[in-house]
């Protein structure tokens, strides 16, 4: 989490420039909404802003020193005037917001300043959101709120209107590949990983992870047996897929890997080979691309995207995958 100003400036230069201007003019807002895709640095930027606010000797007046007691405590998650709220299970409950309000009704432990962050603010229950709204309508002096979300459209308009929205941009695939290669990730695997995450640390972890290597093999095998018979595909699900992809996030990643195979097939058919990401499998994919129509591949991609939607709607993962395999069977989409 201890991302420095320089590291974040390289990823989100516009956001960091805005922070700098606000701090130099002493005009920080009392509430921010950080919105953007997963891995774009929202959480790191929240903690960076907290350090800038509480740092005892900021460089140039706004860059946290990273060495004073306040910077260290924020990095370790134990500063008494910096509070983090995350979903309890699937949602953020009213009791969590009330507990935060009680904390803020006390005088600051070491100064008048207080800062709180709410991760996945879109997951607040209606009651929690209404409680927070009252809090935002009558902000305590020298209090800063930071709400983070990947789904800004899910947040109450009345809350949005009381926050300054800061949009975190995704790194371009080219920039991500460049960064990964500079971190010694193999050029053959970097384009694939760059399509799966915008988070450098997560991407590097994938590149060093045996589970991820195995995941690619299982997904490719599933695609191959799909072309043979429904029975073989179901056996592959039981023998390989369900044993490897257990958690919801893992299943989601597996579906993304499957989706990228169909995308590569489409790129090959369109003559855009330079956009293929399964570089180690390019020869095989060129053969597969000859055996499918563009319409069929598009329909199959739609089926995978629908499975991802159902997964997030908490459909039973085993039933979901069995249904998907039947849909993906060659020709079955057009019966």
UniProtKB/TrEMBL annotation:
SUPFAM superfamilies: P-loop containing nucleoside triphosphate hydrolases (SSF52540). One of its GO terms (cellular component) is DNA polymerase III complex. PANTHER family: DNA POLYMERASE III SUBUNIT DELTA, REPLICATION FACTOR C / DNA POLYMERASE III GAMMA-TAU SUBUNIT. One of its GO terms (molecular function) is 3'-5' exonuclease activity. This is DNA polymerase III subunit delta'. It comes from Cytobacillus dafuensis (Bacillus dafuensis). It is an enzyme of class 2 (transferase). It catalyses: DNA(n) + a 2'-deoxyribonucleoside 5'-triphosphate = DNA(n+1) + diphosphate. Keywords: DNA replication, DNA-directed DNA polymerase, Nucleotidyltransferase, Transferase. Residues 248-329 form the DNA polymerase III delta subunit C-terminal domain.
């Amino acid at each position: 989490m201890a991302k420095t100003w320089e590291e974040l400036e390289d990823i989100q230069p516009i956001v960091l420039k805005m922070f700098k201007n606000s701090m130099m003019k002493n005009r920080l807002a009392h509430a921010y909404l950080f919105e953007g895709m997963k891995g774009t640095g929202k959480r790191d930027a929240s903690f960076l802003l907290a350090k800038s606010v509480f740092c005892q000797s900021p460089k140039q007046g706004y860059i946290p020193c990273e060495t004073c007691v306040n910077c260290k405590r924020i990095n370790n998650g134990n500063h008494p005037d910096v509070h983090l709220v995350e979903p309890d299970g699937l949602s953020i409950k009213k009791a969590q917001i009330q507990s935060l309000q009680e904390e803020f009704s006390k005088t600051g432990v070491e100064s008048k300043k207080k800062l709180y962050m709410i991760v996945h603010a879109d997951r607040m229950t209606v009651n929690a959101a209404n409680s927070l709204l009252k809090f935002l309508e009558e902000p305590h002096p020298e209090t800063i709120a930071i709400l983070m979300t990947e789904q800004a459209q899910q947040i109450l308009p009345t809350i949005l209107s009381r926050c300054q929205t800061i949009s975190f941009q995704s790194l371009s695939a080219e920039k991500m590949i460049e960064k990964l290669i500079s971190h010694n990730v193999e050029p053959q695997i970097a384009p694939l990983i760059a399509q799966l995450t915008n988070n450098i640390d997560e991407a590097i972890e994938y590149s060093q992870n045996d589970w991820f290597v195995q995941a690619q093999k299982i997904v490719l095998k599933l695609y191959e047996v799909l072309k043979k018979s429904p029975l073989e595909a179901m056996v592959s699900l039981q023998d390989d897929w369900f044993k490897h992809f257990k958690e919801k996030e893992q299943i989601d990643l597996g579906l993304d890997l499957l989706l990228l195979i169909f995308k590569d097939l489409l790129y090959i058919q369109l003559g855009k080979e330079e956009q293929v990401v399964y570089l180690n499998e390019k020869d095989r994919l060129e053969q597969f691309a000859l055996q499918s129509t563009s319409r069929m591949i598009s329909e199959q991609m739609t089926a995978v995207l629908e499975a991802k939607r159902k997964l997030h709607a908490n459909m039973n993962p085993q039933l979901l995958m069995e249904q998907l395999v039947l849909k993906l069977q060659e020709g079955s989409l057009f019966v």
